[in-house]
Amino acid sequence: MKMKQWSKRAAAWFLAISLCFTSFGVSGEAVQAAADADNGEENVTLRGPAIDAEGGKIVWDCVYFGNYWQSRYIPQPENQPVQGEDDVVHEDSDGTKYLVREDKTCYKYEPIKWRVLSVSEDGREAFLMADKNLDAQHYHASYSDTVTWEDSDVRAWMNEDFLDTAFSAREKEGIIRTEIENKKSPEYVKGENEEDEAHTTDSVYLPSREEITSRTYGFTDDTGVTETRKSENTDFAGNGGTIKTDNPSADYWLRTMGTQGRVSHVDYLDGKIPTENLNALLGAVNDISRIRPALHLDLTKTDLWSYAGKVKQDKTEIAPLVPTQKPETEQGVTMAPGQAYPQNPVVNGNDLKKNTWDCIYFGKYYDTKITPSALAAADEHGTVKEDEKKESYLIRHEQGYFQYEPIKWRVLSVSEDGRDAFVIADKVIDVAAYYHDNGVEITWEKSDIRAWLNEEFLTMAFTAEEQAAVKMTDVTTADNQWSGEPGGNDTKDKIYLPSIEEVLNTAYGFSSDAAEGDTRKITVTDFTGKGGTPYKPADGFMSYWLRSPGTAKGCPAQVGHWGEGEILTEPSMMLEKAASYLGIRPVMHVDLTDTALWTYAGQVTPEGIVIPKKEETDTTKQPGKPTTDTDLTPAPSTQKPDTQIKKPGKPKIKKLVNKKGKKVTVTLSGKVSGATGYQVVYAAKSSMKGQKKKTFKGTSVTVKGLKKKKTYYFRVRAYTKKNGKTVYGSWGNKKSIKIKK
């Protein structure tokens, strides 16, 4: 079957409903797959990797682009291969193109399926990786301990033979030649091999270790066991591919080099990138492994590619539905007039400040401080009254009067069927102690805060109908990932605190860096800022509890003080302990099927900028269908800024100098305007786990107590102090240096 013929048939699969999972990538002014107007089909908008909130599986959008030898094929009897026809391309009676191998097996030339790893902000470019291994090749045909990706045989083969075989001249025009970084594997950088390789410009290339461990692209951010990296062979690749190897494994090459001619790969058994020792990398470069190529595609050339449904990390495929098939959610969820349906977060892998969350109003709680028309009597302290508009408010003689008003929630994920939303409060809504006794080794299961959320708060904030819509959830609280401090037993809760893992989840719109908190920092309500339920003034404090344990007993994890948004787990970093009062930012699962119980509340950015819905809402939208930039009209922010102090800019590390005595001097390229001082963090891991901190003034600082022969990573941020408050800027560039003296 020829590509043009196949594309016409594939067009009949286009889905009338687009993505319904949490997006890792941003589509911006989304480019859509071409539709067959004769069939009345709607277009499909591509987005980056997603997560199935109920199944917990990463989901990738897929496209068909180009063709290659893949499935085993049996030609018509009259076209059976004969002696001397090996490695010759044939065409069967029905036009099917196939390749004959030396052993007379035949392989069909058919569309290549690619996973969408990211979509550019303007929606014009997609970063793709093959859904399966397509071939088998030497990295380099002869052993060399100095070979790099730049001069490897596999690079030449991919950008010449593979490119010519897989893509037509028109399709090649849709491939964006890309400048790529070529870093060495960090475990094996020694001596003269310390420097990274030169950048190269390629049409098609192997993924790197950095790319295949990127959460933005849908993978785990470590080199350990994971389904997200496992790949299968096509029939052609499994039977040796071009090189005809007898090895049936589905290991595939990465372009990342180690030392002495060793190259990184992904293990077919468990998706692990072996790093334990040199032998764990595929020995010498003349070994054979599979090819799972990557490329950048110009999505504006919609006649060259077609939508191919979705695939989960466990290889489960979600094919495009025939447009006449109506989603089950159409019967289960009925939209009220003027309603818009919430979508999953839109995540920008390059700039987290451009992330957006859809929001809903659901339930009510004490929020804005007001001045009622009549002051309360002395005996009315702590009671709830109604104003002339029949709006309820709480009376606090010490703190003031607080309006009882809708709670705004950010949507972290929407289930595939559109019935369930996992949400987190848009602001810190109250303050409370985690547990009344600091000396007790307490976990989430036995905490006072859990009981309060599921009893008092639940009944105060929600009507009986709303309480029924809050789903009972099986909650697992993991052990602390850095210290192993136990998280305790699983629980069943309607409302609960987020965990460390949840507020590190990029699928939910958060940064995966525990020390970078722009996506986690939020403001407090008026009620919380004046003391909340326990009458403890918060004084602008924006720390809030997590249900996860910290690194020491009696110290639950927190999201950072003064709005930094970083995750705090160590006692020396925390401002408060279990018996002290910190903010509450709850999470829960809401049943969306009764749309009379909730209201769409527009979108919000990490900086608190509100993007409300349009005046006229398209009520024909289906649940789970992502909202594009054209569905929402930006408006000036109606929220209060996080702080009145202007956030300082990013400092840049100019150089690192290793001085005698295992010291490193960090020098900045210059002062940051408005900065009071700077904070440097450093660690022996690129992930910055186990980092240490030091504050300094001026444009340089010397760090002591480092270990010889280790590589350390450094980064710096500026801070501004005013009126007793400290506001930190974003982290600047990261630099590393090996300690030699």
Give structural notes.
The protein is mostly beta strands and about 750 residues long. Helices cover about 10% and strands about 30% of the residues. The protein contains ten helices and 40 strands. The strands form ten sheets. Strands 1, 2, 3, 4, 5, 6, 10, 14, 15 and 16 form a ten-stranded antiparallel sheet that branches. A hairpin with a 4-residue loop joins strand 1 (about 50) and strand 2. The protein is globular and about 105 Å long. It starts with a helix and ends with a strand. Mean pLDDT is about 80; it is low at about 1-30, about 35-40, about 320-340 and about 615-645.
By DSSP, the count of extended strands is 40
First and last CA, distance: 65 Å
Principal-axes shape call? globular
How much is the average pLDDT? 79
Task: Write down the Rg.
Answer: 28 Å
What characterizes the major β-sheet?
A: 10 strands, antiparallel
Count of helix runs: 10
User: How big a fraction of the residues is strand?
Assistant: 25-35%
Ranges where pLDDT stays below 50 over 5 or more residues in a row are: 1-30, 34-42, 322-338, 614-643
What is the percent of helical residues?
A: under 10%
Structural class: mainly beta
Secondary structure elements and their pairing?
Blueprint: H1 3-11, E1 50-52, E2 57-73, E3 88-91, E4 97-100, E5 106-119, E6 125-130, E7 135-138, H2 153-166, H3 169-174, E8 178-182, E9 197-202, E10 204-205, H4 209-212, H5 235-238, E11 252-257, E12 263-266, E13 288-291, E14 294-298, E15 306-312, E16 317-318, H6 329-332, E17 357-370, E18 384-386, E19 392-396, E20 400-414, E21 420-425, E22 430-433, H7 448-461, H8 464-469, E23 473-475, E24 491-493, E25 495-496, H9 500-503, H10 526-529, E26 544-549, E27 556-559, E28 567-568, E29 581-584, E30 587-591, E31 599-604, E32 610-611, E33 653-659, E34 663-668, E35 677-683, E36 692-696, E37 700-703, E38 711-722, E39 725-728, E40 735-738
